[in-house]
Amino acid sequence: MAVHKTSRSGLFLLELMIVILFFAVTSAVCVNLFVQAHLTSTAGGELTAATREVQSAAEWLKAADGDLEKLAAQLDAKAADGRLDLYFDVGWNRTGAQDAIYTVTVLCAGQRMVLPGGGEITPAPTGREDYFSAVVAVWNEKGEILQIPVEKYLG
Amino acid sequence: MKKEKRSFGLSIGSSSILMVFVVLCLTTFATLSLVSANADYKLSRKTADAAATYYALDTAGERMLSDLADLLERTRPAQTQEETACRLALENALRDFDSPDLSEDGAALTVSEDGRWLISGTVCGADGWTLQIRLDVTERYWLNRENASIQRLLWQAVPPQEMQEESGMPVFQPGNLPVG
């Protein structure tokens, strides 16, 4: 009887060890899937918010007829040297340059800007007074998220 | 014979069953999360691409408008010019009008019943998107008013045909009501 009891507990222990091992492997795979899902979801959310902010800035810019000073006054920001920056925190709320995670940059024709990831913002040149050209881009420390050209004939 | 007492609360195999259940749950939820996140990301990507396409198209439209404004400036009628001659001059000018993104049909002039001078055209963008434009040039061209702007009556981005067919949802249509 004693031998039988020992073998039973030994079997249970063996089964438990195999179960734990298998569970560790599968849970590692599942955690990996969850992490991937989280990262993809974060990237998706980031892209959606970036699109929204870029479109918003682009429409403001068109409404201001490309006048950065006017745009800066509307959006409570500062414009200098044909460039205007809007800073956003991790939740896409407006913040200062110090706490910024994301930056929306409006760059007018004649300017050029190199982004952290090696990308570049170069608005198409115009050469006429009744036409403005700019690029609105969203970027973070990793690089560009989205950029769109904004042009308008003012006549 | 005395029966052997069970010393385990958990019999052999029950831990395996529990583990299989937990692993199945974990795998299911993890896969669902990933599929859902991927679908969300694809939608976000589509939205971003659509925005980029729209603004590229809009930019092409603005360039075409700028070229058209130059053309109108060149063919601006003299105050004494009669309407038929003026119309003919503009139609001829529009026939030769060539802007990089303008469709093969070019731009066409129509004079509406209420005497408005309208120019219509289509700008072609990437991936089959088009921008349909209708402009009122009465003030700028025909009435020859200084600093008069070209009015935009229509500025509509149209998705490619296959995308329009895709977007049709099987929703209720009045004609689909069963008879009887």
Report what the structure shows:
The complex is a heterodimer of chains A (155) and B (180). Chain A contains 2 helices and 7 strands. Chain A has 155 residues and is of the alpha+beta class. Chain A has one domain (2-153). A 5-stranded antiparallel beta sheet of chain A has the order 1-2-3-6-7. Chain A is rod-shaped, with a radius of gyration of 27 Å. Chain B has a domain at 40-162. Chain B has 4 helices and 4 strands. A 4-stranded antiparallel beta sheet of chain B has the order 1-2-3-4. In chain B, a hairpin with a 5-residue loop joins β2 and β3 (130-136). The longest helix of chain B has 61 residues, at 14-74. The radius of gyration of chain B is 33 Å and the shape is elongated. The interface between A and B is large, with 46 and 41 residues.
Features:
heterodimer; A: 155 residues; alpha+beta; five-stranded antiparallel β-sheet; two-stranded antiparallel ribbon; 45% helix; rod-shaped; B: 180 residues; four-stranded antiparallel β-sheet; 4 strands; 47% helix; elongated
| Beta-strand content bin of chain A | 25-35%
Could you say which overall geometry of chain B the principal axes of the C-alpha atoms support?
elongated
Sheet bearing the most strands of chain B, described?
A: 4 strands, antiparallel
* Biggest beta sheet attributes of chain A: 5 strands, antiparallel
Choose one word for the global shape of chain A. Answer: rod-shaped
Determine Rg of chain B (CA atoms, Å).
33 Å
**What is the total domain count of chain A?**
1
Order of helices and strands of chain A: HHEEEEEEE
- Strand element count of chain B: 4
Task: Determine the most extensive contact between two protein chains.
Answer: A-B, 46 and 41 residues
The helix fraction of chain A, in percent, is 40-55%
The amount of beta strand of chain B, in percent, is 15-25%
Structural class of chain B: alpha+beta
Gyration radius of chain A, to the nearest Å?
27 Å
